[in-house]
Amino acid sequence: MNIDKRIADDLAANDVSFVTTVPCKQLAGVIEEIDQRSDIFHIPSNKEDEGMGLCAGAWMGGKRPAIIMQNTAIGVTINTLATLIQYYRMPLPMIISYRGELREPVACQVEMAVHTKALLAQMHIPTYHFHWQSDVEEFDNILKYTFMCNKPVAILTDANFWGGYGDQ
Amino acid sequence: MIRSEILRDIAPILRDQLVVCNIGIPSQELHAIDDQPTNFYMLGTMGLASSIGLGLALAQPKTVIVIDGDGSILTNLGTLPTIGNNCPDNYILMIIDNGSYGSTGDQPTYTSMKTDLVAMARAAGCENVVEVQDVDTGTALQAAIDSGKGTVMVVKCDSGNAKMPVITMDPVVIRDRFMKAVAS
């Protein structure tokens, strides 16, 4: 199974047509897949809170958005999640590379990994953790859930899910 | 002129347009001067008015005017390259550059010193960037709308705030009526 294509296909099947990204090595394949598709508009962001602003505007303009980013971004976007996405009650699927988990080669990444789920729980953000490739089967339902409840929803995808990254 | 005088001046132009208005006193002033369902008031999240407006302009065809400030642009400088490389024709970013953080007590920003937002916007890739004096704002804004081209306006004006009430409207109500106005 090509999980990059599967994620992009599920996004398109759920009418998600506006995707912003801040890159991560783990996410390179899915970002490239999204960039090449004609049914999804891809706009790279310089910072994740900026990307959430773009998504908020796109949603108010009638497009279903999504953001793809690294879990370090949770440290950047707490205020934006609380005062924009949650306060105005907007849906936002957040496809997050969960750095600092099993098979992580870079020690510093663990420092945010240990806070990631606690911060998401504190923010009352529904959170799903993809560890095995087969976990992607849940993605379609998560997208439907997100646009049903108009909340930000986190999908944490760890190195095991992506198949590891080898040397880094 | 101070920002509230400019907003009063251009209110008849803004009335028929989709407006995304910056956090704090700018939104309070616009709300008090001419509340419209076509206005999206930011109640929090400093810095993201330009990004919200860009997302909105990219998602639908109506003209979008963002009322932003120098302090908020400096908070989210990454927005300028994103605008410069993706600017749709229906996007107007109007930066009210009064050289101060108005909502927090008029502390000076760096644009009151050496920093030049016009040059920064151009260097970031924005193609139509105009510096405007406060008294000319209405004329320049109408010209930007009529041009049908994405435009960044940097409006130079005096520092200062009008005393206006805080916005008590529920954020979901602001957002819902705005979305209905966008879709209408």
From TrEMBL, chain A:
Gene3D superfamilies in the cross-refs: 3.40.50.970
Entry superkingdom: Bacteria
Keywords: Decarboxylase, Lyase, Pyruvate
Signal peptide per UniProt: none
InterPro entries to which the protein is assigned, alphabetical: THDP-binding, TPP_dependent_decarboxylase
GO molecular function per UniProt: carboxy-lyase activity
Protein name, per record: Sulfopyruvate decarboxylase, alpha subunit
Organism listed in the record: Cognatishimia activa
UniProtKB/TrEMBL annotation, chain B:
Record GO biological process: small molecule metabolic process
Pfam families: TPP_enzyme_C
Sorted UniProt keywords: Decarboxylase, Lyase
Record bears the keyword Lyase: yes
InterPro entries associated with the record: Sulfopyruvate_deCO2ase_bsu (IPR022494), THDP-binding (IPR029061), TPP_dependent_decarboxylase (IPR051818), TPP_enzyme_TPP-bd (IPR011766)
CDD domains found in the cross-reference section: TPP_ComE
Gene Ontology terms for molecular function: carboxy-lyase activity; thiamine pyrophosphate binding
Residue ranges annotated for the Thiamine pyrophosphate enzyme TPP-binding domain, each copy included: 39-154
Protein name as catalogued: Acetolactate synthase 3 catalytic subunit
Domain of life per record: Bacteria
Coiled-coil portions: none
